[in-house]
Amino acid sequence: MIDEYAVEITALRRVFATGKGLRKRGPGHVALDGVDLAVRKGEVHGLLGPNGAGKTTLCKILSTVLLPTSGTAKVLGFDVVGQTSRVRESMGIVFGGERGLYGRLTARQNLKFWGALHGLHGKALRTRVDTLLERVGLTGRADDRVEGFSRGMKQRVHLARGLVGDPAVLLLDEPTTGMDPVAAKDFRSLVGELRAENRTVLITTHDMVEAEQVCDRVSLIDAGRILATEPPAALSEWITRFERVDVPAAPAEVVARLRELPGVGSVSTEDGRVRFETTQEGVAAQLVRALVDEGVTSVTTSKPSLEEVYLHVFGHNGMAVRK
Amino acid sequence: MRTVLTGCWYQLLVLRRSPADLMALFVAPVNTAVFLAIVRHADRPDLVGHAVLAPGLMALWAIALITCGELIDAERFGGTLEALVAVPARMLPLLTGRVVVVTTASLFAFAESWLVAVLFGLRVPIPHPAIFVISMLGTALAMACWAGVMASVFVLARSARIFQNALGFPFFVLGGVLVPVAMLPDWVRPLTNVVFLSWSSDLLRDALKTAPVQDFAGRLTALLGLAAVGAGLGAYLLSAVLKRVRSLGTLTYA
Lengths: 323, 254
Known about the structure:
The complex is a heterodimer of chains A (323) and B (254). By secondary structure, chain A is of the alpha/beta class. Chain A has helices at 55-62, 84-90, 107-117, 122-135, 151-163, 181-196, 208-214, 232-239, 252-259, 283-293, 306-314; strands spanning 5-18, 25-40, 44-48, 70-75, 78-79, 91-95, 169-173, 200-204, 217-222, 225-230, 244-247, 264-270, 273-278, 300-302. In chain A, strand 7, helix 6 (181-196) and strand 8 form a beta-alpha-beta unit. Chain A contains 11 helices and 14 strands. With 254 residues, chain B is mostly helical. Chain B has one domain. The longest helix of chain B is centred in the last third of the chain and has 33 residues, at 216-248. Chain B is globular. Chain B starts with a helix and ends in a 6-residue tail after the last helix. The A-B interface holds A 14, 16-17, 57, 60, 63-67, 85, 88-89, 91, 93, 95, 97, 99-105, 109, 113-114, 116-119, 121, 161, 165 and B 2-3, 6, 9-10, 13-14, 17-18, 78-80, 82-89, 94, 246-249, 251, 254.
């Protein structure tokens, strides 16, 4: 059912020309390379990937501020190239960061301005602005200039701005950047409320805890390609379907013997703590039994967290940003 | 229309917080004083009208060039242009509202010049008040239309400020702001004819003279025609520029 999806992306490709004007040269920089993605209505969907992976480019295309090179993207069935007005009516955008707000205006004035551009006016506009200021916890600073706000407070104004048009689909590009832990926790509650209101949220983030807590599904994106789309828990299984076994301490000869067991992939030791990574189903249970038999009774089993998945998939990039 | 009003409201807020955007209003009285001093020194009371009008026209052009010309680029620099493009409201009426407010505010320069003349003990009678008011309104309209062109064009230039600085005096000359274009060489006339300021300044100066204003309707039509060209060109350029920056991915600097 096509109506099931709030966002549908097919073979989306975006290439940025290198050089300038008539001096364009080379094949260009491929920011998105055949992205396919479908986000269900009411879903909170995370986009995870390193810097330069293509997350923001994807958000920009969906929000109609950037044209794709090829492929299609639809928001609530409306094409982002041919039906921009309909897309803009149904979408709110939060581009994170310090910029993007009018610093010399107050938070209330900022929201009134953006609300007016979404077609609100009069009492409806005032009520919406007051409600949003309350919702993001800025009522007490509503009439202060935004230029005096901390980064986290600016981020709240960004969030309120994204919601001022009462959008069915909300794009959040790293929305908790700069927020303190308490504010970030409040933000996650807010996303929960948005889900309860049946809004669709597409969120890019580097915060794995955030992704695990708020997202129904996450997509791993790198080099302009979607590597996988799964619920956060299922993505753990994407790198290994099998459990790890951790023991706080174990005799070296026991560790050496168990290392040779079939199905034990790797063994690492850090601060005396030993971790066995298994590569076959059922081996974790065998390991636990063997350890207990050897007198090691403090044993825990676990699956990789989303953060570990992220580091596993993208860790090789280090500080490098893809060209 | 609501978006135009939103643009007006927003620009009023901005101007209240950024009076430097109207810096030319601080310069206009000084220019007036200089021009009036020259006129007095030359003992040419017949040129007082020229000396009073010129600073106003110069301020009008300077503010259009600098403040209106940077309206879109400033949004891009501040990181708000993306969000502006992504809202349901169209950019053209929003920009129109903002330009109207800036242009209207810049008209205050004429009042300042008049006051400076009074301080000099000079009177500047207006024998043709209706023609003067209509010409002034036509001038403001044309300026607003061409300011839209500048706002669009300067988005494409990373070093727009160089152009802005360079486009001051050439247009003061081609627009006959201080020296009537009739006194310029004939070969310049084709250029001056397509600069709306030349029609404006001549009409405004003629409205200050006791002699009947010749061919007022024809000259006003030329002024309004050039305003219409500016409006059409501005609308086209805005649309084309936004499409281009969306295509190139240069809607934001970062």
